[in-house]
C-alpha cells in the first residue's frame, strides 16, 4: 500500500472574479479580492482523498507555499478530507517572485522528507497559467510524470494514467513513486460539509520555511510589466441568416 | 544566439505548431536547429530540412522514443544541449511541449517560460496570465532560456525554401521508468482544431451531444473544425479534446462561429484572436456578443439549419 500522498494546493484569485490590472502596471489587483483554492488543485485533493477512501493510500498531506493566508487554503483541503497540512512560509519579496521552479524545489524536498510515494497536483494554476510545477517536481526527484490526467489507477507498484492530449487520450504506465497532474475530467471535487469543516479545525498544520528544506528562493525571472489585453470591439448585429451569410461572403470569410 | 526547437511529429508528419515554434526561433537569430526524436522518422527529417529558417536537423532514433515519453526525451535533450550549447530551447505549447519542456528546464535548473505570444528581445517575452485577462512581459535572466510557443501567435514557417543539413545524435540509454501503452485519437475527416481556417463551436445551448450533429453538418459545408465550450464538455456533450478556452485549446482561425455559447471569460481567452467572430445565441445579453463582429440573436435550432440551406445555394 502506498503510504503517503502529497497534494499541492495553491491560493489564487477566485475564478469568478473579474481581473483588474493595477494602474502602475506592476501586476493585478489582489487586495480585497476574493481568493480560493485553484480549481485544478481541488481536483487533485479530491483524487487523493478518494484513493484514501478506497484504502489505496494511508495518509494525504496538503502543502501550500505562501504567506499566512494560504493556511485557509490548506484548511479547505483538510475539510475535503486531507489528514494534515504543511505550510511553507514564503512572504514579502520572496512571495512576489515565487515561481513554479522554487515551488517544485520545495515540493521535491518535502516528498523526500515525508517519504511520499505519490504527488498529485493540479495541471496548472489559473493565475499564472504556467503548467510547469508537476513536470519540474518530477524532474527534480527523477520520478516519472503523468500529466493532464483524466484517469488514475494504482496497480501494485505502478500507476496507470490516462492523459488528455491534443487529439484525444493516451494511456501510460509509470513506476512508483510518481507525480500526477490533474486535468478537468479526473473527477468532480466534493464540497466540504459543515461537520468536516469543524473537524478540519482540529487537524494539524506544520509550519516551516524554505530554508528549513534547504531550498534557495532566488528567482531569475523578472516581471517587467503587466498590461490589459487589447479590447475587441463589438461589431454589428445582423437581422437574418441570409444577411449573415452575405456579410461573411463580402468579407471573404466564406 | 542559437536555438534548439524540439520537433513534434507523428513519425510521418510534422505537427503544425512546430512550424510556429521555428518562426519564433528565427526571430532570435538564424542559428536554428531542430531535434527530431522518434522510432522511424526519416520523412520528418526530410520535411524539416526544407523548412525555411532551419539550419540543422538533429536526428535521434530509438524504440524508447515511442510515444514521446518525457522521461526518455529529457536525457536526450540534455545530451544534445551539452554537445551544442544552445542559448534557447523551445517547442510548441501543445500537450507535447507543455509536458516535456518544464522537465528539461528543471534538469537545467532554469525557470521555463510557458506559452509565449511575443518575443520582445532574446531575453524578454510576452505571455498571457489569468486566462488571457492580462498580458505579462517577463525578462528571463537564466543562462539558457527554455520556452514554449503559442501556435496562434506566430505564423507557421514556410514549408519550402530551406536547405538544412542533418546530423545523427546518439541516444542515451533508455531510462525505463515509464511505458507508453496506447493512444485513442478522435477520428475525424475534418481539419484539425488548432490549424483550421474556420471553426464552428457549440456550447451548452446545444442541449445534448446528439444536437452537435447540426454543427458537424454546418462545419462540413464550410470545411471547418468543430470545437466546444467548457460548459458543453462539462455537461458531457462532447469529448475534452474539442474544448476551446484557456484550459483547452487556443485557436485563432479566420472565421470562428460560436453557436449557443454565452461567452465565459475562459472561453473568450481561447478564441478572441480569431480574425472574424460570429455569434449565434438567443440571449441578446450574452457576453459573446461583446466580442463578435457579427451577432445573430436567434434560436440556433432554427438558424443553423437555415444557414446550412443558404450555404447549399
UniProtKB/TrEMBL annotation, chain A:
Cell compartment(s), UniProt: Mitochondrion matrix
Protein name: Electron transfer flavoprotein subunit beta
Record text on subunit structure and interactions: Heterodimer composed of ETFA and ETFB. Identified in a complex that contains ETFA, ETFB and ETFRF1. Interacts with ACADM.
Single GO molecular function: electron transfer activity
Residue ranges of every copy of the Electron transfer flavoprotein alpha/beta-subunit N-terminal domain listed in the record: 25-217
GO biological process: amino acid catabolic process; fatty acid beta-oxidation using acyl-CoA dehydrogenase
UniProtKB keywords: Electron transport, Mitochondrion, Transport
Keyword Manganese: no
Family named by the database record: Belongs to the ETF beta-subunit/FixA family.
GO cellular component, one term: electron transfer flavoprotein complex
UniProt keyword annotation of Manganese present: no
InterPro entries from the UniProt entry: ET-Flavoprotein_bsu_CS, ETF_a/b_N, ETF_b, ETF_beta_N, Rossmann-like_a/b/a_fold
Entries under SUPFAM superfamilies matching the protein: Adenine nucleotide alpha hydrolases-like
PROSITE patterns the UniProt entry points to: ETF_BETA
Alphabetized Pfam families for the sequence: ETF
Biological function: Heterodimeric electron transfer flavoprotein that accepts electrons from several mitochondrial dehydrogenases, including acyl-CoA dehydrogenases, glutaryl-CoA and sarcosine dehydrogenase. It transfers the electrons to the main mitochondrial respiratory chain via ETF-ubiquinone oxidoreductase. Required for normal mitochondrial fatty acid oxidation and normal amino acid metabolism. ETFB binds an AMP molecule that probably has a purely structural role.
